[in-house]
């Protein structure tokens, strides 16, 4: 088993090295360019489109949008809901976006006029808690919510969020197993595949190869057992390589058992050799530079070898990190209205 894992590690490094040699890449990020925003909300919802256009959302019902790279921002309160925490956002273009609340009321709203007005598209029951959003195409998307009656809550749309309905086949959840809304990225939709990283009493990777018609479960090699522990964020490097980050949000300095690399072709996990600098709530793969970028309240890290070794970027804290849909830009968001772009 050890020889097999070492072989898998070697193949992953070789594959990543070949990818990197194809183009002239920067050696490492130089830090974060902090942008001035007009809000003080905690921003966990983040959806950049290009280096110029990005949306964000967060506490107190706040939404923001820039169309000039962060020099100026439009902002407001979603439908007057100033007590709601909109931790999830997905933007389609400069005028159209969807926001999802965490907590009560459990609602999904959509704007088609750049945030001037928001229309309610879905409201769950008084016990629901929605944790994240992920779109696999320009029209099909999914929202993950905490379990109800032993099953995960997963909503889907096929028309850009105009209507939502539950998956017919929902994966089972252990008692005390939960998803985290720290960066709204514990659910990953890619093509026909769905990945869900969980925590709490158990930390698992739930996987569907057919848009939720059937499910498999893989125990994650991360810290778990308490409500504050587990997988908080997932990203795909392509070719079935899924990277998870997380840890314990009550112990931000803990460095052991907080990330992993799942090789879907082998259905097995690999642990990093040099790990992250502490609890991390968000992770994204940046294909342009072949980097993984991870962020958390205590700092950020990057990996240039598929998550095997991590190096610090800065001590600047963030909640979420996302890549622009249409170009090579990486954005991060955090507490007190903080938004930044990665420099390299």
Q: Care to describe what's here?
A:
- The protein has 344 residues and is mainly β.
- It has one domain: 7 Propeller (Methylamine Dehydrogenase, Chain H).
- It is 6% helix and 44% strand.
- It has 1 helix and 30 strands.
- Strand 20 and strand 21 form a beta hairpin.
- It is globular, with a radius of gyration of 19 Å.
- The N terminus is likely disordered.
Task: Write a concise keyword list for the protein shown above.
about 5% helix; 1 helix; 30 strands; Methylamine Dehydrogenase, Chain H; 4-stranded antiparallel sheet; about 350 residues; mainly beta; disordered N terminus
Topology:
Elements: H1 2-21, E1 31-35, E2 43-48, E3 54-58, E4 62-66, E5 74-77, E6 85-91, E7 97-102, E8 107-111, E9 119-123, E10 130-135, E11 141-148, E12 151-157, E13 165-166, E14 177-178, E15 187-190, E16 193-197, E17 199-200, E18 204-208, E19 216-219, E20 229-236, E21 241-248, E22 259-263, E23 268-270, E24 282-286, E25 291-296, E26 299-303, E27 311-314, E28 320-323, E29 330-333, E30 339-343
Antiparallel strand pairs: 1-30, 2-3, 3-4, 4-5, 6-7, 7-8, 8-9, 10-11, 11-12, 12-13, 14-17, 15-16, 16-18, 18-19, 20-21, 21-22, 22-23, 24-25, 25-26, 26-27, 28-29, 29-30
Quick rundown:
By secondary structure, the protein is mainly beta. It has one helix and 30 strands.
SS-based class: mainly beta
Described by its quaternary structure, the protein is single chain
Task: Give me the side-by-side strand order of the main sheet.
Answer: 1-30-29-28
Number of domains: 1
> What's the tally of helices?
1
Strand content: 35-45%
Label the CATH architecture.
Answer: 7 Propeller
CATH topology title: Methylamine Dehydrogenase, Chain H
């Amino acid at each position: 088993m050890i020889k097999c894992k070492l072989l898998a590690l070697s193949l992953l490094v070789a594959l990543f090295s070949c990818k990197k040699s194809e183009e002239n890449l920067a050696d490492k990020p130089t830090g974060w360019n902090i942008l001035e925003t007009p809000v003080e909300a905690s921003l966990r919802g983040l959806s950049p489109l290009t280096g110029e256009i990005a949306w964000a959302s967060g506490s107190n019902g706040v939404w923001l949008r820039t169309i000039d790279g962060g020099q100026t921002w439009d902002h407001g309160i979603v439908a007057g809901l100033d007590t709601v925490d909109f931790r999830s956002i997905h933007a389609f273009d400069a005028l159209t976006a969807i926001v999802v609340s965490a907590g009560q009321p459990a609602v999904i709203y959509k704007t088609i006029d750049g945030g001037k007005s928001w229309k309610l598209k879905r409201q769950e029951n008084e016990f629901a808690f929605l944790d994240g959003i992920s779109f696999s195409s320009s029209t099909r998307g999914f929202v993950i919510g905490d379990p109800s009656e032993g099953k995960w809550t997963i909503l889907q749309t096929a028309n850009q969020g105009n209507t939502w309905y539950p998956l017919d086949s929902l994966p089972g959840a252990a008692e005390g197993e939960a998803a985290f809304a720290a960066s709204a990225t514990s659910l990953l939709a890619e093509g026909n595949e769905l990945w869900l990283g969980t925590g709490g009493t158990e930390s698992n990777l739930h996987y569907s190869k057919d848009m939720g018609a059937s499910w498999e479960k893989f125990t994650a090699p991360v810290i778990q057992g308490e409500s504050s522990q587990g997988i908080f964020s997932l990203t795909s490097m392509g070719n079935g390589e899924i990277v998870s980050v997380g840890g314990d949000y009550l112990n931000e300095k803990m460095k052991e058992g907080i990330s992993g690399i799942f090789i879907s072709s082998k259905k097995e996990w690999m642990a990093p050799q040099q790990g992250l600098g502490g609890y991390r709530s968000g992770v994204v793969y940046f294909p342009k530079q072949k980097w993984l970028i991870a962020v958390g309240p205590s700092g950020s890290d990057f990996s240039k070898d598929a998550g095997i070794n991590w190096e610090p970027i800065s001590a600047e804290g963030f909640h979420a990190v996302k890549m622009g849909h249409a170009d090579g830009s990486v954005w991060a968001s955090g507490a007190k209205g903080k938004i930044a772009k990665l420099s390299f």
